[in-house]
């Protein structure tokens, strides 16, 4: 993600969508975590959707961040979904402890 961005938008229903672009490595771990934590703790939307459709690979630090996000969001009554996952990223997230119930639209090939 060093040469890419994270888009954040609020949908009409109040859901916040966070969409990172490119491989998620250690270079983006801190800013990505800050966006997610700020959204859950301060914005507190009814739903937080992490759109991983443009993410071909997630490193272990960011996998841990996404797993921890689920517990943090539960504590703040924010529903979290991860959508547009490639099958490979879904497998990585499951191994990191993210419940499959959090996944929507699995199986699309990742861009990149």
Write the layout of secondary structure elements.
Layout: E1 6-10, E2 16-20, H1 29-43, E3 47-51, H2 60-75, E4 79-85, H3 87-95, E5 103-106
Parallel strand pairs: 2-3, 3-4, 4-5
Antiparallel strand pairs: 1-2
Helix pairs in contact: 1-2
Describe the structure.
With 112 residues, the protein is α/β, with parallel strands linked by helices. It has a single domain (6-106), classed as STAS domain (Transcription Regulator spoIIAA, 2-Layer Sandwich). The protein is 36% helix and 23% strand. The chain is built from 3 helices and 5 strands, in the order E-E-H-E-H-E-H-E. The chain has helices at 29-43, 60-75, 87-95; strands spanning 6-10, 16-20, 47-51, 79-85, 103-106. The chain has a 5-stranded mixed sheet. Strand 3, helix 2 and strand 4 (79-85) form a beta-alpha-beta unit. It is globular and about 30 Å long. The termini are close together. Residues 108-112 have low confidence and may be disordered.
């Amino acid at each position: 993600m060093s040469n890419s961005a994270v888009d954040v938008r609020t949908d009409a229903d109040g859901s916040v969508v966070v969409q990172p672009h490119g491989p998620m490595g250690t270079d983006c771990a801190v800013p990505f975590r800050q966006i997610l934590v700020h959204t859950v703790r301060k914005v507190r939307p009814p739903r937080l959707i992490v759109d991983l459709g443009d993410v071909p690979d997630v490193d272990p630090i960011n996998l841990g961040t996404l797993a921890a996000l689920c517990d943090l969001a539960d504590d703040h009554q924010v529903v979290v979904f991860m959508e547009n996952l490639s099958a490979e990223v879904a497998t990585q997230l499951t191994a990191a402890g993210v419940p499959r119930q959090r996944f929507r639209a699995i199986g699309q090939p990742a861009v990149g």
